[in-house]
Amino acid sequence: MTLVVQKYGGTSVADLERIRHVAGRVARDVRAGERVCVVLSAMAGETNKLVGWVDGLDPANYDPAEYDVVVSSGEQVTVGLLAIALQSIGVPARSFTGWQAGVATDGAHGKARITGIDKAPILAALEAGKVAVVAGFQGLAPGDRLATLGRGGSDTSAVALAAAIGADRCDIFTDVDGVYTSDPRIVTKARKLDRITYEEMLELASQGAKVLQTRSVALAMAHKVKVQVLSSFSDEPGTLVVDEDDIVEQQVVSGIAYSRDEARLTVLGVRDRPGIAAAVFGPLAAAGINVDMIVQSVSRDGVNANMTFTVTRSDLKRAQAVLAEHQATIGFGEILVDDDVSKVSVVGVGMRSHAGIAHTMFQTLADKGINIQAISTSEIKVSVLIDEAYTELALRALHTAYGLDGS
Amino acid sequence: MTLVVQKYGGTSVADLERIRHVAGRVARDVRAGERVCVVLSAMAGETNKLVGWVDGLDPANYDPAEYDVVVSSGEQVTVGLLAIALQSIGVPARSFTGWQAGVATDGAHGKARITGIDKAPILAALEAGKVAVVAGFQGLAPGDRLATLGRGGSDTSAVALAAAIGADRCDIFTDVDGVYTSDPRIVTKARKLDRITYEEMLELASQGAKVLQTRSVALAMAHKVKVQVLSSFSDEPGTLVVDEDDIVEQQVVSGIAYSRDEARLTVLGVRDRPGIAAAVFGPLAAAGINVDMIVQSVSRDGVNANMTFTVTRSDLKRAQAVLAEHQATIGFGEILVDDDVSKVSVVGVGMRSHAGIAHTMFQTLADKGINIQAISTSEIKVSVLIDEAYTELALRALHTAYGLDGS
pTM value? Predict the structure, then answer.
C-alpha cells in the first residue's frame, strides 16, 4: 500500500468549492488504495489579512510569538473544513493542528525551524483507515507556544512529515503543473521537466524560481524524500524531484531562473587593507542582512577600493542605515545604490562535467549587448547581475543558447 | 492587590479600533494596581462566518469535533491581537488558547462542558506581571482534541477561570450597561438593577434575558464568583450578581423576561392511563429535545386526554417527527402545533415570602384581555405562555403592576 503526503497551497483551498475539489481528488486516491496524509495552507488571502491586522495594531515592534498565535489560525480553519468535506463524501478523516500532529519547532517565532516530529499521532490516524489532514506552516515551540515556519513553510511541513512517516512520495499541488526550464510567462518555449535533481531544484528555488520553497528542497534532499510538483487543477503528471542517480539522461543545463528581488550597493573608497571585507560585512551580518554577490575592485592607486554587493530589495534601506552607522569604523567615501537590477541564473548538474557553460552565458549576453554587473558561481550554477530592463531578453536568449527551447 | 477576570464579547473586539479600546481599558486597570485576566470572544460575525462554511460543506451530518477545530480559530485571532495591542502601549501581556490555559472539557463537541482548569499557566503569567489574555468558548477534550462550549460559552469560560484562579470579581463587558428590570427596548420605563441574586439572574437568563448565559450564572452561583455585568463602551458601574445575603433591600419582583423562542404542541386524544406522560416524553428526551411547560387536560369522558407542551422553535419539526414515529406505541389522534407564542416570566426571590405574586400576574393579563395558554412556576418564578402578538403589552402591563417603573 502506497503512503503519500499531498500538500495543497492556498489557491487550492481558497473557497468551499475548491476544498470540495481537493476532497474529491483525495477520495479518488484513497479509493485507489493509497494511504494519504494531506498538508494544507490557509485559504489564499487569509494569511495576508491576519498579518495586516497585526501590522494595523503594531507595525514596528509586535511580539512574534503573538503574531504566530494570530497567523496560525488560518490553517486550522482549512484542515477542519477539508476533514468535514472528506467525511461528507464517505472518506474517514481527521484534522491535526501543528501541535496535535507532533510537529516540534525551535523558538524562532515567525520563521521557526522544525526540530522533530512525533510520527505516532499521524500514523495512528492512518492505521485507523483515516486521511490525516494536517495544518502546514506551524508547530509547537518550547513552552507550549504556537509557532509558524514563515512564508512557504507549508512545503517544508509536507516534506518533513513525509520524511517522518516514511512516505513513498510527497506531492506538492500548486497552481502550475510542474517545474519548467524557465518561467513560461516570459519564455514561451519553456518546457516542463519530467525530472530534476534535488541540487538543481535547490539552486533554482534559491535563485528565484517560486515553485518550491528552498528549505523544503534542502530537507527533501537530506532525507531522500521523493517530491512531485504538480497542478491541483489538472490530472497531468508533474515534475519529480529525485536523486541524480534516478535521472538517466542528464541535460547539461536544466533551467534558467531569475530574481527581481535584488538591490545593488557600491561602497566607494574603502581602504584596501586586510580585514576590510569583515569590517563591511560584519555589521550587516549582525543586523541579519544576507549579502549575496560580492565584487571587490581595486582602484588604480592601489590604496582605495570599491566594494559592490547585492542584498534583497526589502533589506536595502536597512543595509544603507547599518553602513552609515559604521562609516567611521569601516572608513569609506559614499554609497551608491541601484535597485533596477535583476539576477539571472543558469543551473545544471551537468556543469560539473562540461566546460564552457559560463563562457556560453557571457558570450550570449554580450551578443545581445547586455552588460554584466556582477558574477557568482557554484558547482552547478552561474548567476549574473544585469540591468532589470534586460531580464526577459536575457532569459529568452540563454534558453535558446543552451538548447532548451521546446518545439 | 485585586485580581479580576474581564470578559469582552464579540462586539467589543469587532475590529482593530475596538481591540485598541479594550487594550486601553485594561491598561487603565493594570496601572491602577489590578491584576487582570482577560477572556475574549471571536470578532463579531466571525463565528457565524466559520459556522456558515461548515454548513456549506455538510449541513446535515458534520463531525462536531471538526466543527470545533474550525470554529475555535476565531478566539485564537482575538487573543493574539489583544496581546499585541496591550504590548504596543507598554502593558506586558501574553495570549492563551483554551488548551494553553489548561481548560479541560468533556468530549461533547460543540457544547462541551468544562471538567477542570489547571490554574498554573495563567497564574504564572499573572505573577510575571503580565495580563493573561485567554480564548473563551474553548478547551481541550479527551484525546487532545479541540472543543468549544457552545454559543455564549465565553461567559462560562470567564466565570470558570475566575473560580479557578480565585479572582475577586468577574466583569462581563457587553453592549448593554447592566441587567434591567425588563428589556428596555420594549419597556421604556425599565430600570437598571444595581444588584441581583444568582438565583434571579439564573431564572432571568433561562427565561430569555440574553445578558448572561445560563450556564455561566449557575457556575458563578456554585463557586460564589462575584459577577458584574457592564458596558465596554461606558464607564458607568454595571449590575452586580451576588449572594442573597449581600442584598439589603430586596424587591419582591426583580425582573420580567420574555422569550419568543417557543413553540407549542398539543397531542390530542391520548389515553389517560398511568405511564402516558412517560410514553409521550420518553422518545423526545431520547432525541435530545427539551420540553418546557406541560399541561395535561383530562377530557370529559375520563378516557382520552390532551397533552400540551412547549419546545424551542428550532426543535419543533424534529419533535413532530419523533412523535409521529411513535404514534402507534403512544396512541393518539393528531398533533396541533403553534409557534406564534411567547413566554413571559416574572422573577424574584421575594416570592418565597410574599403571597399573591402569581395572582397579580394572572389578573393583570386578564385585565388586558390576554389569554394564558399554559403556566409553569418555580420557587422564585411564574411563567405564562401567551399569543406572541401580546408580548410587548404583557411586559409593560406587568412592569407597572409590580411597581418596577422608573421615573
Answer: 0.85
What is the arithmetic mean of pLDDT over A295-310?
80
Secondary structure of chain A: what % helix, strand, coil (to 5)? 40, 25, 35
CA neighbor of B132 nearest in space, from B117, B142, B149, B143: B117
**Which residues does chain A have within 8 Å of residue B79's beta carbon, measured at their own beta carbons?**
69
- Cβ-contact A82, A122 below 8 angstroms: no
* Least confident range of A42-51, A391-400, B102-111, B295-304: B295-304
How do the residues of chain B divide into helix, strand and coil, expressed in percent and rounded to 5? 40, 30, 35
Contact criterion met (CB < 8 Å) for B73 and A70: no
Optimal mutation site among B66, B68, B88, B146, interface A, most CBs of chain A within 10 A: B66
Q: How many CB pairs under 8 A join A and B?
A: 116
State yes or no: pLDDT of A249 exceeds 80. Answer: no
**What gap in Å lies between CA B288 and CA A400, rounded to an integer?**
72
Contact call for B81 and A16, based on CB within 8 A? no
Task: Compare CB distances from A53 to B72, B81, B97 and report the shortest one's residue.
Answer: B81
CATH of A3-175, one of 3.40.1160.10, 1.10.3720.10, 1.20.1250.20, 3.40.50.410: 3.40.1160.10
Phi, psi of A184 (to 5 degrees): -65, -15
The list of chain B residues with pLDDT below 50 reads none
Nearest to A134 by CA among A38, A204, A45: A38
For A201-242, what is each residue's pLDDT tens digit?
A: 999 988 877 788 888 999 999 999 999 999 988 889 999 999
Nearest CA in chain A to B23: A57
Q: Would you kindly state where each structural domain of chain B is located, as residue ranges?
A: 3-175
Q: Do A80 and B95 touch (CB under 8 A)?
A: no
Nearest residue on chain A to B143, alpha-carbon basis: A100
